[in-house]
Amino acid sequence: QAHLVESGGGSVQAGGSLRLSCAASGFSLDDYNVGWFRQAPGKEREVVSCISSKGSHIQYTDSVKGRFAISRANAENMVYLHMNSLKADDTATYFCAANVHACSVWSMDYWGNGTQVTVSS
After folding, report:
1. Which DSSP category does 88 fall into?
2. Which of 5, 15, 42, 71 has the smallest C-beta neighbourhood within 10 Å, fewest atoms?
């Protein structure tokens, strides 16, 4: 059975850093695009960053460019989101998700249950 599990969330002060991890089990991430998404209370889920199956194409939403970095280790079946210079607006539940062909809120095949990130100003 396919699963994605996020970890690494927590509470930090503004300006701090966190590294989120996304571990896949029951399937290989090798052929999947993987995205990090976030959802804050009362807001819609939004894409934060996406990485293609081989890591050759990476996208970030404008608000995190220059602060966040996505990476993947296919041999370990893992994807990471390195978050630096965190702001209060980054507070949300962060999800990882996988899809063979695309990377958007509406198209992902597998979703994790999320990890909470809280940034205090």
Report:
1. G
2. 42
Sign of the alpha-carbon dihedral angle for 11, 82, 93, 26: negative
Give the pair of three-digit tokens for residue 93: 């539940």
Q: 17 and 117 in contact (C-beta within 8 Å)?
A: no
CA gap 53, 19 in Å, rounded? 20
Check if the beta carbon of residue 59 is closer than 8 Å to that of residue 49.
yes
Contact 49, 68 (CB under 8 A): yes
pLDDT in tens, the chain (121 residues): 999 999 999 999 999 999 999 999 999 999 999 999 999 999 999 999 999 999 999 999 999 999 999 999 999 999 999 999 999 999 999 999 999 988 988 889 999 999 999 999 9
